[in-house]
Write a structure and sequence with these properties.
single chain; alpha+beta; two-stranded antiparallel sheet; 6 helices
């Protein structure tokens, strides 16, 4: 049981107000977020449903899918898409410099290329 910080609650409520104009529902959500069980409430499908999945184009062959739960955590922590794109580009550069192979698919698998 961990309470969310005031800043996190404000960020989430600001985002949710853009998604939902129902003041009664927003008040209910705010009460839940400000309770001692705020972090547990964030795991509920009801709150996650307000956040949309989206795909960010990183490079020619790279798209990064941001799922709803991750989008919610980004809003909670004040992390923007530009920061995520920058971080992923650094990861790709790191892999390229060290000759680490990154495959594209449902699961990302990477490993060091070895000479045979």
């Amino acid at each position: 049981m961990v309470a969310l910080s005031d800043v996190e609650v404000r960020r989430l409520l600001k985002f949710l107000k853009k998604q939902n104009n129902d003041t009664e529902k927003l008040a209910e959500i705010e009460d839940e977020l400000r309770s001692d069980y705020g972090t547990e409430y964030l795991r509920e499908p009801e709150i996650v449903s307000f956040f949309q999945s989206n795909t960010l184009n990183i490079r020619k062959m790279w798209d990064l899918k941001i799922i709803s739960y991750t989008q919610m955590r980004m809003v909670q922590r004040g992390i923007g898409e530009d920061e995520i794109i920058g971080l992923f580009k650094k990861f790709l550069d790191y892999c390229e410099i060290r000759e680490i192979l990154v495959t594209v698919g449902d699961y990302t698998i990477f490993g060091k290329l070895e000479n045979r």
